[in-house]
């Protein structure tokens, strides 16, 4: 067959047997996988027809024979045609040099005659990349009577144990195999066999029969959250229509699924395929219902967990294993539903074969029953010349960030200059701008550790606590609501929180106080946690979202489609909040929160009582009379719950980096993985280690090299937006923007309930009517969602800065320029002063040059300088943190 | 020595006992009244919302007049009929909106007070007279009707083929069981065939091949001379087939549906066939020409049951949304819309005098309707989980079967008569034999049982999947 080298386009002819193998190009010596359909005509001339006595048979047969002969010979030579000349024979297949061979799964257990296990062989190359060698490795079974292997799929023959040797390029992996019950054909179970078919074929998906009303009156529970109900609906709801146990192949569920009769969903499975056969077998067995002790899936694994593919159109097969409660394991690759969170970087087929696309990282997931698991697939450019630059590492954070960047073959940007750093640090840590004197002192300072020193100083400022009180006030929804939550209560709630933060009370203690808040909300403002939200289910959802970063809302009505949470998880979590009582106090605005002795959470389907169970954790023994909330508070903040520390650490990270390691920060789920799981884990562990002391974690982040990166990208990281290879440009949030505008113009604001001169970040009530803050996206605190704070641009913002009170009026009111002129400062000096004030730097020569004409003996210097001031305030460099 | 309190506890205990005894004796004799027993309960559980100021649902329960007036959706109590009283049904959590809302039901003892009050005639005070139960304005006494009885001997199958078309390894569900109104012959749907049995001797008297998919419905014409079977292939096709009962001769193939027919009937004069199915249309065909006479587009979900009245003047149809409509088969005009079932209606049955129609629904109830004014006569829960079949006898008895695995007979007022002996089965369809002596029902498992109606004892079984002796055997394995 004919093909050409994809690197140097050299034409090559070879036998069809080379298809799919990795070879070295004889011309450019680079490796590639032989692709393309073999040409019909063989390279060699067909053998001559036999003696004339025979009638002229079809030449095609002989041509075919010739091909087969050639293929069987399988000569290890490649012929290269150059120009018109005849080939030179070249070296045999040169196997790819690998540093490690891995085979997944590490052990094979086959239970039952119909069991199968697909193996995946993956090589780790010296460059750190991986390659799928499943079809190229050789497999030898020691005892053929026990099991056999074909194209990487192991099938059982007889009970016993054996091993499979997988070899490639001098490396070998031994996979032990155990076979049991080979003679038995396992009974078809509704839950274990039929339900997965309904999911794989898409029957119970949200767009089809899984919709809340089903389709055409046939409703299946979405992704199978109600197998018993599905069984009844299939077999008993309209008897005689959906299944026919007397003539099973005429059952409508098969006829429609095969597309033999009109079906809105079209053909969902092929006749004779696995899915069809499973359903038919179940119907032929009389559509039995499972007994009460049917095993359920306890865990799911997708292997390999990671792949690093070089270049486009590289392939990586996956195998998926389910672990059952009766101890068995099963290969469910053909039943799992696959999807990728980044199709541009890596696509995954229905059979679980990943194909690489553009450079990036993707998370390939498999869903089976109620479990979803994922594997990380990194796609890197094929660049043997990439060398990670030698950069200093500030601390452990940099080590972990760089580890990821190395894998992606991205170089981090260079560090930002001092002027950028001081402005950034001031804004991020205190929400203020540095004064010109501070800027000058810092940029001219020569000490090596001055950045760390600056960070330490800023962390001691009161404004640092103010900023975090504001952020927590958003999470706790501190705002007054007409007739529901009084202003007095909101202010008391805010003040309590502020006192906690100023006293540096560890955050886990604060959370415990909130969750166990009891008594009058006036005397115990932390109890407002239960006044802000009075609905049991919403309380449960908010607690999970705020403290653990998880959105379990979907699981209220059906199993979460993209995450591990089932309705059982949801309602048993809500059980912790089912006994909260409230009664009015003397003051109509006062409410008293207490624990009721009764109250239960009931499952939506069937109404059964759900005992409280930790989200993703154990079911605690709660002795009679003990407050469920106490048990909950202890667990949330304990080491048993890793999500708490990680979530808070992630929130802190997102504040300083502009994007969480999991983004959005309150959407932690299996299908939204951390861009750097090791980093997140490390930050969470440190935070817990620091006894939840904010300052220490913030110090780690701000003294890392990663925080100090410039926003200028380089060629390798230009497209990166999630791996912290360079800093991001971020618009200041509403309160901070207003505060810095006020600060540089030396004016003072008056907000409701606060003394004149208070800053916008100190406003306790989310429900405050302020045009500027509203326009620039201040959180209304009506929900706990991290998306409440908006920094997207809009026309109102631009117009307000241009024409509104925030700039022009403040400049007039503050009279900064007037004062400076009165102090006999020269216009040039004032220009410098304004630049330092607003942008933390002096004007460049070019800028000075442009300004010169306006400042050369102006008629009204104040007007010109105020105009400059206004222009600075309107500049992007001012409004953005860069 | 100061006596401790325990010494004298027996005095108040004795006194309480005496008083309690007196009180209980008194209450056992007296009837439940609104002022004495019901109002206190209302004030505890209901008056927060159902008071004159708030009047949720426009219902004020804090006064007798308010209760009798009812609310936004009509009267909430019906004297003497607890099952038809919305108030009782919502506090029992049998109907939405359940009361009290978002809370568990009030204690059983208190629900019982409400029920007794309704049964006792909705007394206001001990001095009141019971409110007369609302009787339908129509005279519903049954005169056993001979509408449609043929002159001469009613048709009995004779000389029909007895060999089944096929026998499957496992019997399929028997979806429909029907009995001739005048002769001891019963029909049941099998796999691709309709089997006829003598309901007295339980012998097979005929097998008719159904060549258009699977039969879903089997019915006899009012005269008993014509057998109808309707069905089809789900998602593909549907037809109605008619045979002459006496000879087994195929008479007609009606309809050209694109999905299975789920409900069908032939008019008493045998001139028309009405059918309906997933297409949501009710179609009326002429049997002589096979042409479509009426195509009625009213039902909003699959048409599940169709039945002509015995006098041929009315045609009833029901659907999966619970709507029941009554039409004039001559011109397709709607006569009544009988609203009441909140969920699918599975079966319809006319009383012999065409004055009463019974409908059986997934909500578990059987509802009887009178056809003068199109009003509900009675509604009762016949089978929890869903009533799947209903049939009238000539004498006005009603037989039902349902998802709770029971087959029962009732009188016209919903008074339970007999429960048939049945093991662990799901009965799908039920019929009385022509003389009302026997009850037949077909099961999900493929069995068909026959009982004596009077005592509920089983007298035999009909085979829905008999062996093909020497003929073609279609195995399903």
Description:
With 882 residues, chain A is α+β, with helices and mostly antiparallel strands. Chain A has 8 domains: 2-80, no CATH class; 98-184, Immunoglobulin-like (Sandwich); 190-284, no CATH class; 296-385, Immunoglobulin-like (Sandwich), CATH 2.60.40; 418-460, no CATH class; 506-636, no CATH class; 642-728, no CATH class; 815-882, no CATH class. Chain A has 28 helices and 32 strands. In chain A, the strands form 11 sheets. A 4-stranded mixed sheet of chain A has the order 7-15-14-11, with no helix packed on it. The longest helix of chain A has 16 residues, at 487-502. With 477 residues, chain B is mainly beta. Chain B has 2 domains: 22-119, no CATH class; 177-463, 7 Propeller (Methylamine Dehydrogenase, Chain H). Chain B has helices at residues 10-29, 34-45, 64-69, 86-91, 108-119; strands at 177-179, 185-189, 193-198, 204-209, 214-220, 226-233, 237-244, 250-257, 263-266, 272-276, 281-286, 292-297, 303-308, 315-319, 324-328, 333-338, 345-350, 356-361, 365-370, 375-381, 387-392, 398-402, 407-410, 416-419, 427-432, 438-443, 447-452, 458-463. In chain B, strand 15 (324-328) and strand 16 (333-338) form a beta hairpin. In chain B, helix 2 packs across helix 5 (108-119). The radius of gyration of chain B is 27 Å and the shape is elongated. Mean pLDDT of chain B is 89; it is low at 20-28 and 471-477. The A-B interface holds A 216-217, 236, 239-241, 244-250, 252, 255-256, 261-263, 284, 286 and B 168-173, 175, 191, 214, 216, 233-236, 258-260, 278, 301-302, 320, 403, 426, 428, 444, 446, 465, 474, 476-477.
The description of the largest β-sheet of chain B is: 4 strands, antiparallel
The number of strands of chain B is 28
Number of helices of chain A: 28
Any low-confidence stretches of chain A, pLDDT <50, length ≥5?
A: 37-57, 71-92
Notable traits:
heterodimer, A: 882 residues, alpha+beta, Immunoglobulin-like, 8 domains, four-stranded mixed beta sheet, 28 helices, globular, B: 477 residues, mainly beta, Methylamine Dehydrogenase, Chain H, 2 domains, four-stranded antiparallel beta sheet, elongated, disordered C terminus
